[in-house]
DNA sequence: AGAGGTGGTG
DNA sequence: CATGCACCACCTCT
């Protein structure tokens, strides 16, 4: 096979730079490059605990390794790293962007991220986008990614870099060039350049969002936990007292108290309780099954579970993630966290903080600041209207009508004024959302509370009135199966592993693809939209020089943190930029967004 | 350690 | 034939 890279794997060429003179000299050379690779080595994955050790800047043949302990003046390199005329290849650049900004105050511009590119290229195939995997895949070389064996934290103390450290550091930068070239070819061939540019432009926004983090009112949060624990304890005691007679052997604990008969958290023991001792025959212990029994113990158990859930998932565990340096929460945003292109969020997952509970209002602005929250109104349904071009849907949005009411009026053949909010409108809402998930009549029936036949009738009626929606959904499903991928308005692709006709699950696999094929263009286009919005908002805040920053995003919502006196301006700009992003993708349907300035996170 | 169940978000 | 999309965290059990 032809040599696809121009460096020596076992002995990569590099220059280890510890003096200002050598740095200036290297900077002069690098300023002449059009494309460079950037990488860093440090002691921690945490932006604020990390001690920056090395900054590598690579050219295709040679890596310049700057010793971050010895170098004091980074100005010549800042000029290069911030030069928009020089393309910077990085691997998982969100991390390096954050580290370099936190440690050196330098902002990487004009980024090509091999990890994001790979995630775009293999989207849907569940393949790794790690450097090791890509080096093997594109270059057929094996990288030693045993990071621990290098003991960077110890080297960080001594400042004594060994040959293996420098080799490793050099190679990490050098491999990026050939990977970039191979990926670039694929991105072009597959028509993915546009979506890659979008993702690369979002990267700095994500890194800064993580750097900024969210502020929490800890005392208030603790108060919520205390209340919940009390409630959980009361409910648990009631249940245990109630079921104790059902068990013949009751034990005392060390203090002479009657001990619990069962572990309320064990669905196995709960199932045994209901089926063997209470004479029911439940298939499972989920909320749907339990609430349909009307058994008093089932009721109490659901209450217990609600408290238990909130305590375990959002209680002290979340507070433990507050950064000791900044006193804020810095979650990990996965930029392409879902195959549809949506973000995911972890450690902690701030995208699943309960809406109704008191927890959400513990996310507060600091003194002198405000939170600005804006979300798109019915973003995904507007995307569906755009794709299907259904005249009724499009007209409803053009006339700024409530879509669920319009569909209810059409389906039930009644005037809009007579649509009842919790009857016809609710049913229409369920159908509207269900359609976007490729939902069938049986599951629909279960939720609306009618039999399957009536649900089928409702669906038929819906599709009769909104025939273009049906045409588009069927087309999207067919397209996905026949072509092996779906696309979004922003040019994203999601690939599907083809269903094997010999597989016993063949039909299920096909219908899986069909449902994903309906949902992916909708959910994915929404994701594209909010990513454009994030870029626009950051640019706008910078251009207008206002003290406002993006701190959070939840699929169709963006939260910013602004200095109090400019919060209203921030709200206006944020909304304008979100609409601009929407108008970039939706040509036939208007987009709308609404927001608030507040002390707490709400919408 | 990993699977399965349950439940939180959009 | 089986039938709601996309995630993440916690718990228990094996």
UniProtKB/TrEMBL annotation:
Gene3D superfamilies linked:
3.30.70.370, 5' to 3' exonuclease, C-terminal subdomain (1.10.150.20), Ribonuclease H-like superfamily/Ribonuclease H (3.30.420.10), Taq DNA Polymerase, Chain T, domain 4 (1.20.1060.10)
UniProt keyword list: DNA replication, DNA-binding, DNA-directed DNA polymerase, Nucleotidyltransferase, Transferase
Indicate yes or no for the key word Transferase: yes
Q: Where is the DNA-directed DNA polymerase family A palm domain?
A: 356-566
Question: What GO molecular function annotations does the UniProt record carry, in alphabetical order?
Answer: 3'-5' exonuclease activity; DNA binding; DNA-directed DNA polymerase activity
Short name of any one Pfam family annotated for the protein: DNA_pol_A
Q: Give the matching PANTHER family.
A: DNA POLYMERASE I, DNA POLYMERASE NU
Name under which the protein is recorded: DNA polymerase I
**Can you name the source organism?**
candidate division WWE3 bacterium CG08_land_8_20_14_0_20_40_13
């Amino acid at each position: 096979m032809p040599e696809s890279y121009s460096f020596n794997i076992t002995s990569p060429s590099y220059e280890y730079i510890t003096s200002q003179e050598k740095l200036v000299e290297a900077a002069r050379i690098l300023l002449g490059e059009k494309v460079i690779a950037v990488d860093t080595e440090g002691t921690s994955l945490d932006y604020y605990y990390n001690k920056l050790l090395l900054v590598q800047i690579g050219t295709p043949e040679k890596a310049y390794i700057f010793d971050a302990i010895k170098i004091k003046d980074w100005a010549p390199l800042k000029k290069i790293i911030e030069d928009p005329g020089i393309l910077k290849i990085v691997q998982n650049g969100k991390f390096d962007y954050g580290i370099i900004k936190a440690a050196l105050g330098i902002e990487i511009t004009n980024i090509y991220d091999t990890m994001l590119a790979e995630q775009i290229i293999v989207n849907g195939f569940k393949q790794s986008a790690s450097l090791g995997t890509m080096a093997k895949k594109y270059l057929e070389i094996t990288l030693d990614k045993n990071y621990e064996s290098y003991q960077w934290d110890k080297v960080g103390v001594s400042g004594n870099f060994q040959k293996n450290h420098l080799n490793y550091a050099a190679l990490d930068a050098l491999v990026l060039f050939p990977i970039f070239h191979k990926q670039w070819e694929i991105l072009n061939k597959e028509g993915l350049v546009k979506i890659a540019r979008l993702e690369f432009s979002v990267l700095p926004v994500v890194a800064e969002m993580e750097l900024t983090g969210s502020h929490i009112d800890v005392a208030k949060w603790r108060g919520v936990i205390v209340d919940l624990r009390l409630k959980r304890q009361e409910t648990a005691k009631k249940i245990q007292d109630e079921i104790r007679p059902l068990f013949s052997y009751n034990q005392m604990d060390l203090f002479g108290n009657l001990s619990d008969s069962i572990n309320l958290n064990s669905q196995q023991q709960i199932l045994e309780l209901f089926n063997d001792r209470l004479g029911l025959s439940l298939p499972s212990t989920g909320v749907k099954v339990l609430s349909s029994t009307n058994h008093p113990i089932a009721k109490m158990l659901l209450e217990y579970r609600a408290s238990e859930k909130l305590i375990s998932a959002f209680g002290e565990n979340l507070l433990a993630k507050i950064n000791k340096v900044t006193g804020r929460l810095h979650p990990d945003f996965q930029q392409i966290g879902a195959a549809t292109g949506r973000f995911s969020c972890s450690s902690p997952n701030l995208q699943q903080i309960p809406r109704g509970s008191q927890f959400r209002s513990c996310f507060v602005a600091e003194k002198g600041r405000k939170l600005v929250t804006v979300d798109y109104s019915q973003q995904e349904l507007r995307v569906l209207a755009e794709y299907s071009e259904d005249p009724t849907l499009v007209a409803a949005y053009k006339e700024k009508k409530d879509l669920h009411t319009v569909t209810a009026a059409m389906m039930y053949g009644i005037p809009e004024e007579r649509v009842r909010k919790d009857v016809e409108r609710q049913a229409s809402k369920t159908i509207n959302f269900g359609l976007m998930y490729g939902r069938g009549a049986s599951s629909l029936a279960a939720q609306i509370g009618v039999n399957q036949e009536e649900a089928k009738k409702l669906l038929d009626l819906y599709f009769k009135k909104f025939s273009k929606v049906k045409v588009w959904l069927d087309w999207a499903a067919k397209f996905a199966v026949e072509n092996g991928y779906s696309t979004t308005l922003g040019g994203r692709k999601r690939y599907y592993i083809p269903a094997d006709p010999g597989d016993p699950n063949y039909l299920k696999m096909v219908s899986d693809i069909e449902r994903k094929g309906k949902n992916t263009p909708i959910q994915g286009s929404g994701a594209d939209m909010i990513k454009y919005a994030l870029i626009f908002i950051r640019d706008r805040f910078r251009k207008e020089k206002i003290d406002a920053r993006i701190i959070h995003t939840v699929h169709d919502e963006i939260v910013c943190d602004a200095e109090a006196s400019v919060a209203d301006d921030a709200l206006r700009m944020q909304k304008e930029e979100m609409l601009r992003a929407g108008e970039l993708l939706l040509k036939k349907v208007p987009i709308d967004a609404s927001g608030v300035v507040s002390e707490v996170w709400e919408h």
